[in-house]
Amino acid sequence: MIRLILVLLALAASPSTPQARGGATEVRSLPMHFEWRQEGPVETCGKTCRSWISAVGVITIDTPAEFHAFVEGRDVRVATVVLDSEGGSTLGAMVLGDMIRNLNMATTVGRTIELPGGDGRASRTTLSPHADCESMCAFVLLAGVRRYVPPEGRVRVHGIWFGDRRRNARAASYSAEDLAVLQHDVGLLAQYTVRMGGSIDLLETAARVPPWEPLRLLSQEELRGMRFTNSDYLFDQPPESVVANSSVRGVY
């Protein structure tokens, strides 16, 4: 029990550093950026053209401010946020998640693909389900009022460690002050998870994966059990607005 508590505490370290994973694209290694994307051309899909917000890259402490700047002046309520990220800052992810919930948005895992037209230019886009949402990205995914993870989508979790001691976690030393900070942070993360309607099993499952082991891929059954998925479709009508009473504050 004590060991599990210590790992849970480490899970919530605010200046977290995601585990590196081979094959990550250059774009996913950059700070998260947001783009409004739409299927097209209109001549092809007409009034049925789907649109979404593409969210790609590493979550940083500045990501909530970037998201605020992106949505300002746009009608984004009930829009779908499509995530493709290896994770990042714990605090940044929680603040971003609260913003997504307060805007009554949907979330999913996916990747925007540019389809070249006959003239060699990218004239159409489509949404591929083959994408990854890792580490703290999973907690952002949890923020959607409606959440859908396609069978091809991959959600991976792990126990986030101190950024400066992750590579040598077992040999590093930790002070009482470190644990005091982590106790506060894990409380915020647990409150956030419950507030978003997630299962506390998510925290326990992630905490069982130390920083020296590969990330844990969640099965479709686990995604349902941990409440990552609460819809069978990606672009169906969202339920009534659910506003999070956030206890996490950030500068927007």
Query: Could you give the count of β-strands?
Result: 10
Any idea of the CATH class?
Alpha Beta
Distance between the termini: 38 Å
Largest sheet descriptor: 5 strands, mixed
Beta percentage is 15-25%
CATH superfamily: 2-enoyl-CoA Hydratase, Chain A, domain 1
Give helix and strand order, one letter per element, not per position. HEHEHEHEEEEHEEHHEH
Helix content: 25-40%
Mean pLDDT: 79
Shape: globular
Strand order of the largest sheet: 1-2-3-4-8
Describe this protein's structure.
With 252 residues, this protein is an alpha/beta fold. The protein has one domain (2-225): 2-enoyl-CoA Hydratase, Chain A, domain 1, CATH 3.90.226. The chain is built from eight helices and ten strands. The protein has helices at residues 2-11, 42-45, 63-71, 90-102, 137-141, 176-195, 201-207, 220-225, and strands at residues 33-38, 51-56, 80-84, 106-109, 111-116, 122-128, 132-134, 146-148, 154-157, 216-217. The strands form three sheets. A five-stranded mixed beta sheet has the order 1-2-3-4-8. Helix 3 links the parallel strand 2 and strand 3 (80-84). Helix 3 (63-71) runs parallel beside helix 4 (90-102). The longest helix has 20 residues, at 176-195. Mean pLDDT is 79; it is low at 1-24 and 245-252.
